[in-house]
Design a protein that fits this description.
The protein is of the alpha+beta class and 753 residues long. 52% of the residues lie in helices and 19% in strands. It is built from 26 helices and 21 strands. The strands form 2 sheets. A 6-stranded mixed β-barrel has the order 3-4-9-6-8-7. Strands 13-14-19-16-18-17 form a 6-stranded mixed beta barrel. The chain is elongated, with a radius of gyration of 33 Å. The two termini are 51 Å apart.
């Protein structure tokens, strides 16, 4: 709830946009578009903000590949999408020679106030120092490989007035009622006499990508929190049942003196009521502290000033406290109601019910009960007896260690999947090429010379060229879909792109569409889709459907031949993806290409680009998952300590006999712990299966929203298994420490007890 509240508050405080439009001058007239929106009642439209694109920067001696929007900053505060300062002085605009950058870029590249950042237009390089780090909602969240760089007006004109290429424009829209936005767009497209054919970012995309990490964390915490709650209730029931059995004779005597079952039951309910009242208060305080740690870590890119404004709703906190209290009381009442079945005569005579006494005698008379174990060492026999005699607590230990190991394994798998993203790039919707070349200066770049160099190099296996266009797909009666269209000159398959059904496009009448595009348009393999690219209408056959976390699967793939239908001289030349005969030579190829074409291209290994892109995700996930893992290990230790202590007390007479005939305390303790070791190992095996197979499936409802049918996993088995063993360690340590009472107590006292 805090995650949603914080995002909504930041969006409100910044007067955040519901839609962002980007335009050039080739398709729509930006001034005409802006004027129309400015005239609409119920809509606040920003002025046009001019910008130029760059493909990377250098900070702290490290070169980074990012799509940068170099913005000509209007005077603050903006009407929409106001920048909130995380660090630096809040000014009307950046002073000359300085820039403002988003929090996400600062954190992933370790950039601080005063640091100089170098930019390269392809024709020249220039440096500007950072005077402000700002919360920039549309271009400053996780999974973002682009950023808005806010420049001083004089710096903007000085650096870009002579740069080859056309200026782009950006504008933001905020609706008084976002639900009415579709009606405005119907009127807008009537004004245009057709669909809006350029780029549009929707609020739902912005909202989703800012909260994806916290939705996953929230899912984990809620699911396993509920599981732990049920385990805790089981412990309460287990404790009450054990207390009733232990004091069966006493309860019988008390009932014979006239105390009713209801009043006896009330003593147990009152006991757990008082314990709950005392424990819920520090629990709520601890939850506030832990949630603050997790939220400040996972939403660090939304921090304006020194702290996040975390909103703790006292009413909801109290409601949760009351709900937990009621659940505990009901559980205590249900289990303590077993005192109704205590018959005073049977209790005084047998110390248990007559049925239970008969059952016990049958088990004692069964001489073959442990015949299969007589040849085992005495320590193992004691451990096995401890397991079979306390089946409820044995099942509890298996379930508890299964849950704990599942959360540890899933956390390890999740982090490793992002750290080792290169192993599964096609499953995330990316190519699997070895080297990526981005053209930074069209004026000095010669595609012919570049390809000649590639063909003459025996280290290079194949290559393809990628461009990206904005495509518009009519979607009656809803708003048209404005999506990114990847246009490839070469083979999608050779570049490493995959589909989850069908195949990648090969011919000029074919298209592969993202999962969410197929869902929105209700299209399947073999269907025809109508799409506008650069203002030109195409009717294409769907040959494949793919999943991609980039753009939430709101994208499509076509071959360069589709563009050539209306533009015969077209040749893709924005980005080249290169595969090598030997991938280990990637760094060598990067250096050679950078040295030969340094004035016109930027070259990186695919691994470097992916590391930069997902670094923020790993940084955001690692603290919350670590906190959750430590919390579950601690709870496992505490519960198993409690259960083992109860079992030791129940069997104190038996252990007194063992000590009296010469067994050492440590031998008895190792025997009991060996049983816990077996149970926790069994639970851990189940936990590994749950963490690897079950939880990813359960996450599917969340992942679908982000364009993934299933989460591509990269499993590091040694690390995953190693972490899962922590649940065994916690269980055995809890058991070992709980049995310390055996060593401290004399055999005579144990027998008396």
């Amino acid at each position: 709830m805090n995650t949603n509240n914080i995002f909504e508050k930041i969006h409100h405080d910044s007067n955040g946009a519901h839609q962002i439009l980007t335009m050039g001058k080739d398709i729509h007239n930006p001034i005409t578009v802006n004027n129309w929106w400015q005239e609409q009642q119920g809509v606040t439209a920003s002025n046009l903000i001019p910008y130029r694109n760059l493909s990377g920067f250098t900070a702290n001696g490290v070169e980074k590949q990012n799509l940068l929007f170099m913005m000509n900053t209007p005077k603050m505060p903006f009407a929409i999408d106001r920048l909130l300062f995380s660090e630096g002085e809040n000014q009307d605009y950046p002073t000359e020679g300085t820039i403002w950058i988003p929090t996400s870029m600062a954190s992933t590249s370790n950039i601080s106030l005063g640091d100089a950042i170098e930019f390269n237009t392809g024709e020249k390089a220039f440096s500007l120092s950072v005077s402000g780090i700002v919360v920039d909602l549309p271009y400053g969240g996780p999974f973002s490989n682009n950023a808005r760089i806010w420049m001083n007006d004089s710096d903007y004109h000085k650096q870009f007035d002579t740069m080859i290429g056309s200026e782009q424009y950006m504008m933001a829209l905020r609706f008084d009622d976002y639900q009415q936005s579709a009606n405005y767009w119907i009127e807008f497209e009537k004004f245009l006499n057709g669909p809006y054919l350029e780029s549009k970012m929707e609020y739902v995309d912005l909202y989703s990508f800012n909260l994806i990490i916290n939705k996953i964390i929230g899912f984990i915490m809620i699911a396993f929190g509920v599981a732990m709650l049920f385990i805790s209730l089981f412990i309460i029931g287990f404790s009450i049942s054990d207390a009733i059995l232990t004091n069966y004779k006493t309860i019988g005597v008390i009932k014979s003196l006239g105390l009713t079952s209801r009043k006896i039951s009330a003593t147990y309910v009152l006991q757990f009521l008082l314990l709950s009242v005392v424990s819920i208060i520090p629990g709520l305080i601890a939850s506030t502290i832990l949630s603050r740690v997790i939220i400040e870590s996972s939403l660090s890119y939304l921090k304006s000033g020194k702290h996040l404004t975390i909103i703790q709703d006292f009413r909801i906190t109290m409601l949760l406290a009351v709900i937990i209290l009621v659940i505990v009381i009901l559980t205590a009442f249900i289990y303590s109601n077993k005192t109704r079945h205590v018959e005073p005569v049977q209790a005084i005579k047998y110390g248990m019910s007559e049925f239970a006494n008969s059952k016990l005698n049958r088990r004692l008379n069964n001489s073959n009960h442990l015949s299969n174990f007589v040849n085992l060492p005495i320590q193992l026999q004691i451990g096995i007896k401890n397991i079979t005699k306390n089946m409820k607590s044995s099942i509890l230990i298996i379930v508890l260690t299964a849950i704990t190991s599942a959360i540890l394994v899933f956390s390890a798998v999740m982090l490793n999947s992002f750290i080792s993203i290169k192993q599964n790039t096609p499953a995330f919707g990316y190519d699997s090429s070895h080297v990526v070349v981005t053209v930074s200066n069209d004026a000095t770049f010669s595609k012919q010379q570049f390809e000649q160099f590639l063909r003459s190099d025996e280290r290079i296996k194949n290559h393809a060229w990628l461009d990206q266009f904005t495509g518009v797909l009519p979607n009656e009666p809803n708003q048209p879909l404005n999506i990114k269209v990847d246009t490839l000159e070469g083979s999608f398959d050779a570049a490493g792109y995959e589909t989850i059904s069908g195949r990648n496009p090969v011919n000029k009448n074919e298209i592969a569409i993202g999962l969410n595009v197929a869902k929105a348009l209700h299209k399947n393999l073999g269907d025809i889709v109508e799409v506008y690219i650069e203002g030109k209408q195409h009717h294409l056959i769907v040959t494949g459907i793919y999943q991609s976390i980039a753009n939430m699967s709101n994208s499509a793939r076509i071959t360069a031949d589709v563009i050539k239908v209306y533009n015969a001289t077209y040749s893709a030349s924005k980005q080249s993806m290169i595969n090598l005969v030997d991938e280990t030579l990637s760094a060598q190829i990067v250096d050679d290409l950078n040295n030969n074409f340094k004035s016109s291209v930027k070259v990186d290994t695919q691994q470097t680009l992916l590391d930069d892109f997902f670094k923020v995700v790993v940084a955001v996930l690692i603290i919350p998952l670590s906190v959750i893992g430590i919390l579950f290990i601690a709870v496992t230790f505490i519960i198993i300590f409690s259960v083992s202590r109860i079992n030791v007390r129940k069997e104190s007479g038996t252990y007194g006999i063992f000590k009296s005939i010469g067994m050492t305390s440590n031998t008895i303790r190792w025997s009991i712990t060996s049983g816990i070791l077996f149970l926790s190992a069994l639970g851990t095996i189940f936990g590994i299966f749950i963490g690897v197979k079950v939880i990813p499936v359960a996450l599917q409802s969340i992942l679908l929203e982000y364009g993934l049918l299933e989460l591509p996993l990269a499993i590091n088995w040694p690390v995953s298994i190693g972490l899962s063993l922590l649940s065994i360690l916690a269980a055995c340590l809890g058991c070992w420490l709980s049995t310390k009472i055996i060593a401290k107590t004399s055999p005579r006292i144990l027998l008396v007890e």
